[in-house]
Write a structure and sequence with these properties.
heterodimer; A: 2 domains; two-stranded antiparallel sheet; 16 helices; globular; B: mainly alpha; 3-stranded antiparallel β-sheet; 15 helices; about 65% helix
């Protein structure tokens, strides 16, 4: 042990320049900057804008789920109310009653989210665990029912519309073209991400993790777990509100469904799929969410069923989400052993594809029979035309599925064996390095 | 007066239906610590299974078979999925049932379509159970079944009102009460009930005495799902059998369980009745805060800042009352009406 520094002498801390961190954040900024140059269609710009918004809201949500261990079923309340307050602010600006640049309107949404989180969070955070989950569900339903009762504020069926091209342009930016809105969203997204990452390094962020892991002990050393949860809830509400405000600017219309249970459920699902235990998880989840909501829902009517099944398997077999899967493989790569697994991965992917093709064909045929029977028995699936009334298609799909399942199980066993061996080798390697 | 009585009975029957759901949920929660998010989905499955079976084997057989089938499915889910995530903690357990609720909803839509299915109650349960006859001359009277037209006709100055109570709702109350008694007897007077109650508080000791606690868990989960499905058979017949029926009762039973007190069966009973009445009674009151303010001399006119909020009638506000009560209870008595747990 080093001797304590003598009085008067200067202590030096060795603080290396964290190259990796600068690199990652630089890359993130670069991706945000260049994405609309790479995908230039207006459809791509709308999707990228939605992704930016989703990233903010999902990261805000993960302050509760991942960092605080609080399972909220009503987070759309805060992003949704942020949206409504933002669109009302925008309309006030349009009416000339308020002088505020449009680029600051999302902050109004954020303040609304903060305000409602302070108000409703006080009740919600009185409890933790499952009771907290049920309270947030109840409050979500409360706000949703209110939205039907108060058409003056929530706009009823049609929602509330606004126009973002108001006020004098700042530096020639009118927010008319989608790409200008995208860059506003990207800027907010970057700042919010940085702020939320910084939060994890503050004492509050650390205490929040402690409250998640061992609330009893936190109480014992003199902190109020309820207060920590309450503070985290307000931070989460603020950033969710910013996301909501940006969504209001992006779509120029806000309908009551933004506070609904389906929206809250989507946040939970995708944050978990992305990986709640890693900071990067919700970002992955948010990107997936927009892809699923915009692209997958166009592709197939059964997408919610697929989503539910993927989620079930994820909870059962990989509770750390996609981020944890990536991290596990990165660990392998760091020890230079990833190359040995590529045959295993190839086998898994091939057989999984067979399962998906077989099961997908059967599900799509059932959906076709249920919903599109009027269009005739023929149905397109993966480029092939299937006849939903002939036994051949059904038998073929079932055969592909069964073969896939059997081969997948064989491949999986081999893969698990290989994986176990490699993990053992890594453990040994770590021990060897420690001994050096 | 007669209409009020019918309303109260409607509220009580709705409450008893909620109790059929919340009792299973409470049992599962207090035993395994699992909040079954998919409980309402099993309720919906019960209704649809009964619909499918009733056309083949008749309603009365379906009333027994559908809950058993759903119970088996529930036990299977516990065995394959829930037991696997048990080691990860309570949040993944809740999440796995959350995922299941998506899957069940989509499968139901897939098999039975997006719109409601026509479910007719059996002949014995159609029409009225009894009629309350209120006449100015004779006071209140009660007639079993539908009252003959002659009884309900106003003769001269003797004004007569007839209010009927549907047989399906009567049946709902009867099933719930029978279930309540059976559950109580099972838990207090049988050997398996003894094991279940012991496993509630001392699972390790029960295991040490040679009982298979995971199997008891599976049994409890399956039975809870079967109870939900029984409620679904009765509820689907009384109300509408449609894919949104799970979402309609789903959040309400969570409110019931929190208001009554987590893990307390008696609390679930009280909570169910309170919520049942709270959902039903305000529907008939067409008064708003504007009227209430007027009686104390405060006139609220359109254009006032509070007008949009004050003009909402009690009937319109009925859907939010359970949730408002939830918030109030949490502020005033965080452990619920009859709860003992503080966390």
């Amino acid at each position: 042990m080093a001797a304590a520094p003598r009085a008067g002498s200067k202590t030096y801390h060795f603080k290396p320049y964290n190259v990796g961190r600068w690199f990652v954040w630089g890359l993130f900024a670069l991706v945000l900057l260049l994405a609309p140059r790479l995908w230039t269609s207006s459809f791509a710009h709308t999707m990228l804008s939605q992704m930016g918004i989703a990233i903010i809201v999902c990261l805000a949500y993960n302050v509760l789920l991942g960092q605080g261990g609080m399972l909220s079923f009503g987070h759309a309340v805060y992003s949704g109310l942020g949206s409504f307050l933002a669109i009302h602010t925008l309309n006030l600006i349009s009416a000339g009653k308020l002088a505020l640049p449009v680029s600051l309107v999302p902050l109004a949404g954020g303040l609304a989210g903060l305000l409602f989180a302070a108000l409703l969070g006080y009740v919600s955070t009185k409890k933790a665990g499952t009771t907290f989950a049920m309270i947030t569900l109840g409050i979500g339903e409360l706000v949703w029912s209110m939205s039907l009762m108060l058409p003056e504020f929530f706009g009823g069926e049609g929602g509330i519309t606004g126009n973002r091209v108001v006020g004098a342009p700042v530096l020639g930016i009118t927010f008319g073209p989608q790409v200008q809105v995208y860059y506003l969203i990207a800027a907010y997204c970057f700042v919010s991400t940085a702020a939320l990452f910084a939060l994890t390094r503050t004492p509050l962020g650390r205490m929040l993790n402690a409250v998640r892991d061992n609330p009893e002990r936190v109480e014992f050393i003199g902190y109020s777990t309820q207060q920590v949860r309450y503070l985290a809830f307000m931070v989460s509400g603020f950033f969710a509100g910013i996301g909501g405000g940006l969504a209001a600017l992006n779509f120029e219309i806000v309908t009551a469904e933004v506070v609904g249970a389906a929206r809250s459920g989507a946040y939970l699902l995708f944050v978990f799929l992305g990986g709640a235990t890693f900071f990067i998880g919700p970002i992955i989840g948010a990107v997936l969410m927009v892809i699923a909501l915009v692209l997958l829902s166009e592709l197939t009517q059964a997408w919610l069923l697929y989503l539910g099944l993927v989620f079930l398997f994820m909870v059962m077999y990989a509770p750390g989400g996609i981020a944890s899967l990536i991290m596990m493989n990165l660990r392998l790569a760091a020890f230079g052993k990833l190359g040995r697994l590529w045959t295993g991965y190839l086998a898994l992917a091939g057989t999984a594809f067979a399962i998906l093709a077989g099961a997908g064909a059967m599900l799509e045929m059932i959906y076709h029979l249920q919903l599109n029977a009027a269009l005739g028995p023929g149905m397109k699936f993966m480029g092939a035309t299937l006849d939903t009334t002939s036994a051949d298609s059904w038998f073929g799909a079932a055969f592909v599925l069964a073969t896939g399942v059997v081969l997948f199980e064989l491949a999986r066993r081999e893969f698990v064996r290989q994986w176990g061996t490699i993990q053992e080798e890594i453990e040994k390697e770590i021990k060897r390095r420690e001994a050096l | 007066m007669d209409q009020l009585l019918i309303n109260v009975l409607n509220g009580v029957s709705a409450g008893l239906l909620l109790f059929m759901l919340s009792s299973g949920m409470t049992l599962i929660f207090s035993m395994m610590g699992v909040l079954n998010f998919a409980h309402a989905s099993f309720y919906m499955l019960g209704a649809y299974f009964a619909y499918a079976l009733a056309s083949v084997v008749g309603f009365w057989v379906a009333l027994v078979v559908a809950p058993l089938a759903v119970g088996l499915l529930g036990a299977l889910f516990e065995r394959t999925a829930l037991r696997r995530v048990h080691k990860f903690g309570h949040v993944p357990e809740l999440l796995v049932t959350f995922g299941l609720s998506y899957v069940i909803l989509e499968l139901v839509k897939l098999v039975w379509g997006l719109s409601s299915v026509p479910v007719a109650p059996p002949a014995a349960l159609q029409g009225a159970a009894f009629t309350i006859v209120q006449s100015v001359g004779d006071g209140l009277g009660l007639v079993w079944g539908a009252a003959p037209a002659a009884r309900c006709a106003s003769v001269g100055s003797a004004v007569v009102h007839c209010s009927t109570f549907p047989a399906t709702r009567m049946f709902m109350m009867a099933v719930a009460l029978v279930m309540l008694v059976a559950l109580w007897l099972l838990l207090t007077h049988t050997r398996i009930g003894l094991v279940i109650r012991a496993a509630l508080t001392h699972p390790e000791m029960v295991e040490a005495l040679g009982h298979d606690v995971p199997r008891v868990f599976m049994l409890v989960f399956g039975s809870g799902c079967a109870l939900a499905a029984l409620a679904g058979v009765v509820g689907g017949m009384t109300f509408v059998t449609e894919p949104s029926m799970a979402a309609i009762v789903g959040s309400i039973i969570f409110v019931v369980v929190v208001i009554g007190g987590m893990g307390s069966l008696a609390g679930a009973f009280v909570g169910s009745l309170v919520i049942g009445l709270l959902q039903t009674l305000p529907l008939t009151v067409d008064k708003s805060l504007v009227d209430a303010a007027a009686t104390v001399g405060w006139r609220i006119v359109p254009g006032d800042i509070v007008y949009p909020l004050a003009k909402v009638t009690l009937a319109q506000a009925a859907p939010i009352l359970p949730y408002l009560l939830l918030v109030l209870i949490l502020i005033l008595r965080p452990k619920g009406l009859l709860g003992t747990r503080e966390d």
